[in-house]
Amino acid sequence: xxxxxxxxxxxxxxxxxxxxLGFWRREPRVWMKPDGAGPVTEADLAVNRxxxxxxxxxxxxxxxxxxxxxxxxxRLRAEACFIVDPIxxxxxxxxxxxxxxxxxxxxxxxxxxAGVVHLPxxxxxxxxxxxxxxxxxxxxxxxxxxxxxxxxxxxxxxPSLEPQHWRGAVPPLRRGFRPSLAxxxxxxxxxxxxxxxxxxxxxxxxxxxxxxxxxxxGCRVSDLAGRPMRFNSPGxxxxxxxxxxxxxxGQMLAAMTPR
Length: 259
Prior knowledge:
Elements (H helix, E strand, L loop, with lengths): L1 H22 L6 E3 L6 E3 H17 L4 E4 L13 E9 L1 H5 L6 E8 L2 E9 L4 E6 L5 E2 L2 E2 L12 E4 L17 E3 L4 H9 L5 E4 L3 E2 H14 L2 E3 L14 E2 L2 E4 L3 H8 L4
Parallel strand pairs: 3-4, 10-11, 10-12
Antiparallel strand pairs: 1-2, 4-5, 5-6, 6-7, 7-8, 8-9, 12-16, 13-15, 14-16
Helix pairs in contact: 1-2, 4-5
């Protein structure tokens, strides 16, 4: 079943990418969500409608959790759930940048069993299921093996390097940034960066697919307390994230202020 779910997600992600590109760099309508939740575009909603139609028709017994859909608490009782971010990196999409993705996952009993992160403007697709390798455009990927915090190249927002998050001096990390959180995890999975770090809660739809891809590539993935992540939770968030191969993952956790 994970293989079949992955094939379904991959096809749906490519179709969604084509829809997104129909709006990209064409001044789509944009408005702000309530409560400071950020921007949304007509493209986000069009992609979300398409994905819900296709995926739920194929798996009518799966529940649904999407950034762009009203939450249905019935998902908490479901054995399987789609977790969807129609466009991860909406601000980049609005600005005409190429670093946005479609992020799709299937979760069973709290664990991600299939995940796809598709970057339509770049023609790149990362994918994995729970019993297979992590792939980039069909080829297996693996993380970098950086030992030690010094000069580790870490994808993180600026708040992650504020002093209160570290036991002593902030380590001499090289910070990078990409607009799509899902893409950041995939860049670590393929060894372009040594680690990804977020000290803020992350929405499940931003990370579920990338978490599986990074794990199947050979990374250790945890929240800020070092715990494995569980998905399809009531709050639909995880308590930050640390993603890296060992031993760097353990070194980062040991250097950070305990949760």
